[in-house]
């Protein structure tokens, strides 16, 4: 009997050691990640600011915004995968530092974030003919000068200028006035008849042009994605632009443009 009891005690002791060892191994195998982001500087527009992905981290963070009058920041951990996202909620144009602290590894990363004026991204769909090329896209800025920037598919700046939206005889037009002659021409005027209602809504929200107050019973089209029909009134060429969601290239816009 004594031998059996000793054998039982020995087996219980070995089982306990094995359980503790496995538990320690499980703890040791738990991966710990250093806190990291793709970069340390970001620009976001006043409306429709995109989240900032946390590339490395442990899903336990504390956020501090140096100037909360510029923006509010919080962490989104709703997805069960990934390290989380930093939600940016702009309040006004300006620049501030957002400190993200990982409570697991006790690491802090400082992000410099600039909030810029709203802008509308228009990507050329077709036709690919003068004065535009495949991949060209506009950024129309909601600032005092109503400036725009035209980039090629490599995000190289092609031209700059300013824009204007007008209504004449119940017809909406977009005018693009280039700072330098573009294809031997400075002013391009487009008839926007047939543009989708979603695009006109984007013009109102992002650029502040309330077309409904100026146009009565104008026919619009409900299609997806949001498109702009832009007929050159001089050449008669019908261009089609898609309302895109690309980010404006950084370090171009100021906070008081």
Question: What's the number of extended β-strand segments?
Answer: 16
Helical content band: 10-25%
Question: What is the average per-residue confidence, as pLDDT, rounded to a whole number?
Answer: 87
What characteristic shape results from the CA principal axes? elongated
Folded structure, characterized:
It is a single chain. With 257 residues, the chain is of the alpha+beta class. It contains two helices and 16 strands. The protein folds into two domains: 36-116, Immunoglobulin-like, CATH 2.60.40; 119-243. The radius of gyration is 28 Å and the shape is elongated. The chain has helices at residues 2-29, 197-207; strands at residues 36-37, 41-45, 52-56, 61-65, 71-76, 85-90, 94-102, 107-116, 119-126, 137-141, 147-151, 157-168, 171-178, 187-191, 227-232, 238-243. Strands 9-10-11-12-13-14-15-16 form an eight-stranded antiparallel β-barrel. A four-stranded antiparallel beta sheet has the order 1-3-6-5, with no helix packed on it. Strands 2-8-7-4 form a four-stranded mixed beta sheet, with no helix packed on it. Strand 13 (171-178) and strand 14 form a beta hairpin. Helix content is 15%, strand content 40%.
Task: Explain the layout of strands and helices.
Elements: H1 2-29, E1 36-37, E2 41-45, E3 52-56, E4 61-65, E5 71-76, E6 85-90, E7 94-102, E8 107-116, E9 119-126, E10 137-141, E11 147-151, E12 157-168, E13 171-178, E14 187-191, H2 197-207, E15 227-232, E16 238-243
Parallel strand pairs: 2-8
Antiparallel strand pairs: 1-3, 3-6, 4-7, 5-6, 7-8, 9-10, 9-16, 10-11, 11-12, 12-13, 13-14, 14-15, 15-16
